[in-house]
């Protein structure tokens, strides 16, 4: 029989919730990796475990990073600054294998009041330089990332400053020249980290640590013109310019037995070391400021986003460079400027003449360039960003030019087709009129000249000239012949109407006279061309044009309505008007069949 205690235990385990593998971290009082090396130890990648500790912070963030050679006591120094033992703080090298791979963060920040702003200060431990199995490029990436992220950069050096230590500062110098050498009052990409030279040595040969740093940064004579010495001297010159942003501090050895430091309390350590350690804490607290990026402080999530941007930039090339950082910081500005240019060009009503489009492009480009000059980051490498912006602007402009050509071609084609249809309509006028053709011809020319704009106008002007000239020649060629035939047909129709319908003798006589004149007059000329160039024919044409078309009356348009009205009037007159009013016109009269005709046998 099972015991009641065992049954209760099983029931409790069954009802207890199973912990989730994706649960958040409960204890942040420990060190977490935030950046780790890839398997090849050449590039860096993010570690989400440590980022969670940072993302939860809502206060402005500041970071203190310690960099230096492999096994130089960086982790122990950080534990001392955080008042932590080796067993609860960052892993110390002599206790186990190298713990710090990449960059680690202490999960619990120290809250400080900096200029009235509640600031959360994180401490970062970095992988040491010059360890076995790593490339120099990897060390450069660690150094670059720590330089960019930190508000205070502690350069931890044992005993002395070497030439390699100065050379490694080249990235910090490039950052200073690229990002910090801007006009005062303008926003900077991010404020520079305060460089703290920390020399751990018991004696300095009678020199202060500041004198030692100044001596190390003096120019090296280079009578032979060695390029490497020139490069190091340039770094020295730049570091001298950054003098206001640099501090030197000495720290004696805590105890002669370094391997037992983790087991010692403060009372067992060198008291001069303890005193200097406390002074170092005060110095760090006095020079630290919240991390400023693009003119504003960062909270935890913003700091992580900033870290992601920087890591992407540093991993972009084979060697980390300030140029890649400039591209990251100017990326949003490039997009903003390109969007501004695109919006301005999108407001244009196409098509436009090429000169007007070029002028709009130049004005928009100048305005965008001013915005970029005011907001871009970097001094030297910003030229590359500007060239990229200019290339993208030119690409957008090319698309606008193509769109303008398409719209111009489409508009001019529509106008050309409209004029072509108009010319075809004028070729088949019911009553041929040269005046009406000329009026339509001029109207087409004016409308095309005024409305057709853009790069396609020249080509379509040539097409218009050919089409209009051809239409005019064809109309004039057919005009005289059509007019002559129309007049002959008109005279015969009027003979029939005057004889049988209205029975108006004068109309019939006039119609016969016109017909006989046309038929006999043409016999006087050998050719139709000689007839059409005769002054008499010109008089006939002028009379015809006056009757058929004028600005007041277009007989071609109103011929059918007027014909219907005249027909109705004649019909009315024949049926009713003559009975009431009698004949007002000299009509045909014959008594042969009248009612008073005498009867015959």
Automatic annotation (TrEMBL):
| Keywords per UniProt | GTP-binding, Hydrolase, Membrane, Nucleotide-binding, Signal, Transmembrane, Transmembrane helix
- A Pfam cross-reference name: GBP_C
Question: Gene3D superfamilies under this entry?
Answer: Guanylate-binding protein, C-terminal domain, P-loop containing nucleotide triphosphate hydrolases
* Limits of the GB1/RHD3-type G domain: 58-160
Signal peptide location in the record? 1-22
Record bears the keyword GTP-binding: yes
- Molecular function via GO: GTP binding; GTPase activity
- Coiled-coil stretches are none
Query: Record's superkingdom?
Result: Eukaryota
PROSITE patterns xrefs: G_GB1_RHD3
Query: Where exactly are the transmembrane stretches of this chain?
Result: 558-576
- The answer to whether the entry has keyword GTP-binding is yes
Under InterPro entries, the record lists: G_GB1_RHD3_dom (IPR030386), Guanylate-bd/ATL_C (IPR003191), Guanylate-bd_C_sf (IPR036543), Guanylate-bd_N (IPR015894), P-loop_NTPase (IPR027417)
Q: Indicate the family of this protein.
A: Belongs to the TRAFAC class dynamin-like GTPase superfamily. GB1/RHD3 GTPase family.
Q: Please give the name of this protein.
A: Guanylate-binding protein 4 isoform A
* Organism annotation: Glycine soja
Organism classification: Eukaryota, Viridiplantae, Streptophyta, Embryophyta, Tracheophyta
């Amino acid at each position: 029989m099972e015991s009641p205690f065992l049954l209760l235990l099983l029931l409790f385990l069954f009802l207890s919730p199973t912990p989730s593998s994706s649960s958040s971290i409960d204890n942040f009082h420990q060190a977490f990796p935030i950046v780790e090396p890839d398997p090849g130890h050449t590039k860096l990648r993010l570690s989400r475990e440590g980022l969670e500790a940072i993302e939860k912070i809502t206060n402005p963030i500041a970071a203190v990073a310690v960099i230096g050679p492999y096994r130089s006591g960086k982790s122990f120094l950080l534990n001392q600054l955080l008042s932590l033992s080796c067993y609860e703080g960052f892993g110390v090298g002599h206790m186990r294998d190298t713990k710090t791979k990449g960059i680690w963060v202490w999960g619990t920040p120290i809250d400080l009041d900096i200029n009235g702003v509640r600031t959360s200060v994180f401490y970062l431990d970095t992988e040491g330089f010059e360890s076995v199995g790593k490339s120099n490029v990897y060390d450069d990436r660690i150094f670059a990332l720590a330089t960019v992220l930190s508000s205070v950069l502690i350069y931890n050096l044992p005993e002395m400053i070497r030439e390699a230590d100065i050379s490694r500062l080249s990235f910090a110098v490039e950052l200073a020249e690229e990002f910090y050498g801007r006009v005062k009052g303008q926003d900077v990409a991010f404020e520079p980290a305060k460089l703290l030279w920390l020399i751990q040595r018991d004696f300095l040969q009678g020199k202060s640590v500041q004198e030692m740093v100044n001596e190390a940064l003096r120019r090296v004579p280079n009578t032979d013109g060695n390029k490497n010495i020139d490069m190091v001297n340039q770094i020295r010159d730049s570091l001298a310019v950054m003098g206001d942003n640099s501090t030197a501090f000495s720290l004696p050895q805590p105890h002669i037995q370094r391997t037992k430091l983790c087991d010692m309390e403060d009372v067992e350590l060198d008291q001069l070391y303890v005193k200097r350690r406390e002074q170092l804490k005060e110095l760090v607290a006095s020079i630290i400021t919240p991390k400023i990026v693009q003119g504003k402080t960062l909270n935890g999530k913003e700091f992580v986003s900033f870290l992601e941007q920087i890591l992407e930039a540093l991993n972009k090339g084979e060697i980390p460079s300030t140029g890649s950082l400039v591209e990251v910081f100017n990326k949003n500005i490039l997009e903003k400027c390109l969007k501004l240019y695109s919006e301005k060009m999108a407001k244009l009503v196409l098509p436009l003449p090429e000169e007007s489009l070029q002028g709009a492009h130049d004005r928009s480009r100048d305005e965008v360039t001013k915005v970029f000059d005011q907001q871009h980051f970097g001094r030297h490498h910003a030229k590359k960003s500007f060239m990229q912006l200019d290339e993208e602007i030119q690409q957008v402009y090319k698309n606008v030019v193509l769109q303008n050509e398409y719209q111009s071609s489409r508009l001019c084609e529509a106008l050309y087709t409209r004029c072509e249809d108009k010319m075809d309509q004028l070729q088949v006028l019911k009553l041929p009129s040269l005046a009406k053709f000329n009026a339509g011809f001029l109207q087409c020319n004016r409308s095309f000249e005024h409305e057709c704009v853009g790069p396609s106008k020249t080509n379509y002007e040539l097409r218009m000239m050919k089409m209009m000239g051809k239409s005019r020649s064809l109309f004039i060629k057919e005009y005289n012949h059509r007019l002559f035939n129309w007049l002959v047909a008109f005279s015969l129709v009027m003979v029939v109407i005057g004889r049988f319908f209205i029975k108006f003798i004068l109309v019939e006589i006039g119609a016969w006279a016109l017909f006989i004149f046309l038929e006999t007059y043409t016999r006087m000329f050998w050719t139709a061309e000689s007839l059409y160039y005769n002054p008499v024919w010109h008089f006939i044409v002028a009379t015809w044009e006056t009757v058929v078309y004028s600005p007041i009356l277009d007989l071609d348009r109103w011929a059918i309505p007027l014909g219907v009205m005249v027909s109705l009037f004649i019909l009315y007159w024949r049926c009713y008007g003559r009975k009431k009013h009698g004949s007002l016109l000299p009509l045909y009269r014959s008594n042969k069949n009248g009612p008073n005709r005498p009867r015959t046998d």
